[in-house]
Amino acid sequence: MTIFALSTVEGHSGVAIIRVSGPKAKKTIKLLTGKTTKPRQATLTNISTKNNKLIDKGLVIYFPKENSFTGEEVAEYHLHGSPAVASLLLSELDKIQGLRHAKPGEFTKQAFLNNKMNILQVEGLSSLIKSETETQRNQALKQYLKESTKVYFDWLEELKTVLALVETSIDFSDEDIPKSLIKDAKRKTKKVISKIRDHKKTFKQGKAINEGLKIAILGKPNSGKSTLINYLSRKKIAIVSKEAGTTRDIITNKVDFNGIPVTFYDTAGLRNTKNEIEEEGKKMAKELSKTADLRIFIGSNNTEQPFKGVNIPKEKGDLIVINKCDLKKAHKEKPNITISLKDKIGLKGLNSKISKRIKELSNQYSGQVISSERVYGHVCNSLSHLEEINFKDPSLVSECLKSSISEISMISKETNNEEILDIIFSEFCIGK
After folding, report:
1. Residue 392 and residue 286 in one domain
2. Cβ–Cβ < 8 Å for 218, 270
3. Strand 43-48 to strand 54-63: parallel, antiparallel, or no bridges (unpaired)?
């Protein structure tokens, strides 16, 4: 079946590209232009309907299947970016027998099924399309360009070598086998286990880059929480008032913080209250504090107990901030930093400390990182099988190695499981 779709954004734009992929792609060029174009060469030509009604004058490019993105014959029509022009050409393609509209991600699915890319690359391409920050783009591009795949292929080669050594010891157990054989297998296995353990640790970073970090701002009413989120968001999103308890719901804002997507959460003021709405806000704030990647506790400089009533235990890694340093000190707290949001004192230092925490959470590893739950599951399972090995029974060692190899292979292996494929490709837009 030959599929087609608009591959650029819908609506008005400078250029609209319509892609056709499949055995009849080349035929559509002849039908719509009356010409036979040279492979991979842009041809400026009139594009018309079956009844010779001019649709537009644009570029047409034909890609043979061995040189196309999808692994099928591909025709691309580069038109003026008018919704009316694109709609008319799509309508004309729909009239050609053997053609149908593409489903979301179906062009990429063709590329996968034709061995133009593996599952890991498909996920990388999906992440690349959805990337919003430079760090996300960089991570997704590494995965799409097979840099991540190489990591797993290297493990496979090392484990296959170990398996060969172990199975040699089984096949020739009664013959004169070098004593160093099992010793060599142990050394190589230990080396791979160490690599996989280190790689497993990168999942937290990969998840932080993909999904972003949650930073909760916690404290008593009137400590400066709303002013702080406005400052960090670089715009006014929360109401600031002298009246205590203004914020009762959770206010959020997502920003690009040095390449990492960060969502700041302004929570309800934590104090003893009989107000039903405030009490609900407190519960929400406490629940958020359990899942936040970073917690900023903010208190007032002119209060004897800046965090009285907060009732959330502080932990290592939390950022303790005392605001209103322009007012007389009345407490004995030892914060990470003292600031004045009103007079803009210490804000550069606060930014620096938040940046440092974010870097610690999301930038620990400079190499390849695990960026999906699927890959993380296979890595964990592979490691689990290897950690069962004790080299007392070569047959059991062989089985553990084979199971580990199978898990790693699944990370980038071809699959015909339609359910898995549908989940992966449903995340793509139509036309990709």
Report:
1. no
2. yes
3. antiparallel
Residue 408 lies in domain:
121-202+369-413
Query: What are the CA-CA distances from residue 264 to residues 216, 228, 229, 254 (Å)?
Result: 6, 10, 7, 6
Answer whether residue 191 is part of any domain. yes
Q: What does the pLDDT read at residue 364?
A: 62
Point out the domain boundary residue: 117, 150, 167: 117
Residues 6+ apart with CB under 8 A from 48: 32, 33, 34, 54, 55
Cβ atoms of 65 and 37 within 8 Å: the answer is: no
- Whether residue 103 sits in one domain with residue 39: yes
pLDDT tens figures, 258-307: 778 888 888 765 555 555 555 555 667 677 778 888 999 998 999 888 88
What residue type is 334 in one-letter code? K
- Our count of domains for the chain comes to 3
Instruction: Assign residue 131 the CATH number of its domain.
Output: 1.20.120.430
Place of tokens 């199978």: 406
Indicate if 232 and 355 belong to the same structural domain.
yes
In a domain, 211, yes or no: no
Q: What does the alpha-carbon distance between residue 231 and residue 336 come to, in Å, rounded to a whole number? A: 18
Q: Decide: 374 and 427 in contact? Cβ < 8 Å.
A: no
Of 25, 116, 23, residue with least CA distance to 76: 25
Q: Where residue 103 sits, what CATH number does that domain have? A: 3.30.1360.120
Long-range CB contacts (within 8 A, 24+) of 126-134: 126/424, 126/427, 126/428, 127/210, 127/371, 129/428, 129/429, 129/432, 130/427, 132/256, 132/261, 133/256, 133/259, 133/260, 133/261, 134/259
CA distance 165 to 10: 57
What is the pTM (predicted TM-score) of this model? 0.68
Element (H, E) at 321: strand 319-323
Burial grade of 306 (CB within 10 A; 0-12, 13-18, 19 or more) = buried
Residue 135 has pLDDT above 80, yes or no: no
Dist CA 357 CA 296 (whole Å): 11
Contacts for 122 with CB less than 8 Å, ≥ 6 apart: 108, 111, 112, 424, 425
Give the integer Cα–Cα distance in Å for 242 and 253. Answer: 22
Do 234 and 198 belong together in one domain? no
Q: Residue 349 sits in a domain of what CATH number?
A: 3.40.50.300
In a domain, 25, yes or no: yes
Q: Which residue has the tokens 């959805």?
A: 130
**Do 308 and 386 fall into the same domain?**
no
| Residue 273 belongs to a domain | yes
In this structure, the answer to whether residues 147 and 177 fall within a common structural domain is yes
The answer to whether the CB of 40 falls within 8 A of the CB of 46 is no
